[in-house]
Write the structure tokens for this entry.
Amino acid sequence: MRYHSTRDLRREWPMTLDGALSAGLAPDGGLYVPEQLPHRGVRDFAEARGLPAIAERLLAPFFSGSLLRDRLGEICHAALDLPTPIVPLAGPGVGGPSAVLELFHGPTAAFKDYAARFLATCLAGLRQRDEPVRTVLVATSGDTGGAVAAAFHRRPGFRVVILYPEGRVSPRQAHQLGAFGDNVHCFRVAGTFDDCQRMVKALLADRAQAARFALTSANSISLGRLLPQMAYYAHAALAYLAEGQAPPTVIVPSGNLGNGLAAILAREIGLPLGEIVLATNANPTLSEWHASGRYQGRPSVATLANAMDVGDPSNFERLAWLYAGRDARAGGIRVERVDDDTIQARVREGEAAYGQVWCPHTACAVEVMERLRRQGRREPMLLVATAHPAKFDSVVEPLVGHAVAPPPALADILSRPSHSEPMVAEAGALSAALAALG
Ligand SMILES: *Cc1c(COP(=O)(O)O)cnc(C)c1O
């Protein structure tokens, strides 16, 4: 299997998977995509049980020609042996079979753990002994940085440089990002997530800098994050099928569109999933695109669901590639936007209505489910819970009126001291900081 850039329509620079995993971003600034999507039907998963085994079957065609091919099973078991429970939802607002796909059972209590661990395991597997230390650059709207830091923490041959927008992540997230130490360096940027992402992209696209600092990316633009995220959707789709249920409508809280795109890709590859509904916060880019068919990136707006504060979702380029020449909106994709007042209401009422405390991102999916049910839809719905509510204590606790205890792995990280350095929102500042790290 070969990969090329979303911008290289003539496919002049095909890459192996290993090259695409290592580079992160294509040299022309585009995102790596496979030359063609393999098909995986239900039969390809016969006897595969559990997330690692399903991931191995799902990803095998993508790893053909990779040096990692024979170790794919091992990689899936090392990286993806985390629970992904599907928890039925009961309550007066449910109005049909609804369940929550809980993706917050990794070390940093957000869905990004699954893919970050997979990418780190792959990159460690590709590393040659005499290579210089690689620098993993990561711009984060809150959760990516922690997941990537946890995945690479104390891994020989790697260091992580995190950029996060100062004041735009939750205090607990900020603490977590600075709490790793060792080979993890954390910078708080005076700007937005989009600024952080722009700085990272500028350095990755600059060949001289990328070579000088042995740079790679671990953002959701990285193919090594997109691919494994398909696995939990495959796992869920097969679970619905095994129970004789119709393919579920999947509601994915979305920002940079990595997770939602993985659901769309899993369906495109052949897994039985229904409509994919992207639940966004007040940032209007995706809902405007869905309404008008025109995509127009915008500056990001700060909201209570801060990990989705993205005005120009990077992965839209992959969606455009996937639906080249077709209208993606006709292909079972819907976008629903949720404002801060509604997020607050859904979090506040979560315990009374469903016996659940929602994180602000997951609350967007809950709102969208209720909207669809009000429109009379009765099919199975699967809501993706992207983070544990304790990560967003400053938003959630005042609304629910009590403390929300972090899960043990998160509590452990939060008990450590935290340190970050300030940075102005310019690519030059990042490059100077990398030089200073030596
Ligand atoms: C990153 C994140 C999202 C958005 O995911 P994308 O892949 O960027 O669309 C949603 N919720 C939480 C909790 C996140 O950390």
